[in-house]
């Protein structure tokens, strides 16, 4: 994922947490913050050490990034997203992660069209 598509600074994470809205299911919490005059969405990931070792945490982050890349055309480009993985995400395959994230996105009404 390109650097321009990532949220890295703590200040940006805190802004999304404080001003954004949260939506959740059992596996993920998604915070959404609308930002005007932004040409593409940005994504921040949070995976706790409680979910497993570094290999497992990085695998979960790869799955989330890949899902958002596949949904890129259906996502609103003026938003910042912070995704927090919960415990059940550690035992999920890529397709289960994708299905769960699409479910949360539908709850949040951030998908432009619900064809996927």
What does this structure look like?
- The structure is a single chain.
- The protein has about 120 residues and is an alpha+beta fold.
- It has a single domain (about 5-110), classed as Ribosomal Protein S5, domain 2, CATH 3.30.230.
- It has 3 helices and 4 strands.
- Strands 1-2-4-3 form a 4-stranded mixed beta sheet, with helices on both faces.
In the CATH scheme, what's the topology name? Ribosomal Protein S5, domain 2
Contiguous helical run count: 3
Strand order of the largest sheet: 1-2-4-3
Q: Runs with pLDDT <50, length 5+?
A: none
**Residue share in helix:** 25-40%
Shape: globular
Q: CA-to-CA gap between the ends?
A: 21 Å
Biggest sheet descriptor: 4 strands, mixed
Subunit structure: Consists of a catalytic RNA component (M1 or rnpB) and a protein subunit.
Family: Belongs to the RnpA family.
InterPro entries: Ribosomal_Su5_D2-typ_SF, Ribsml_uS5_D2-typ_fold_subgr, RNase_P
Protein name: Ribonuclease P protein component
């Amino acid at each position: 994922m390109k650097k321009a598509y990532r949220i890295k600074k703590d200040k940006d994470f805190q802004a999304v947490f404080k001003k954004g809205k949260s939506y959740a299911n059992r596996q993920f919490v998604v915070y959404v913050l609308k930002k005007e005059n932004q040409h593409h969405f940005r994504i921040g990931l949070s995976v706790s050490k409680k979910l497993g070792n570094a290999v497992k945490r990085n695998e979960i982050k790869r799955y989330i990034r890949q899902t958002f890349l596949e949904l890129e055309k259906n996502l609103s480009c003026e938003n910042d997203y912070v995704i927090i993985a919960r415990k059940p995400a550690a035992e999920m395959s890529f397709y289960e992660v994708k299905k769960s994230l699409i479910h949360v996105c539908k709850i949040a009404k951030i998908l432009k069209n619900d064809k996927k």
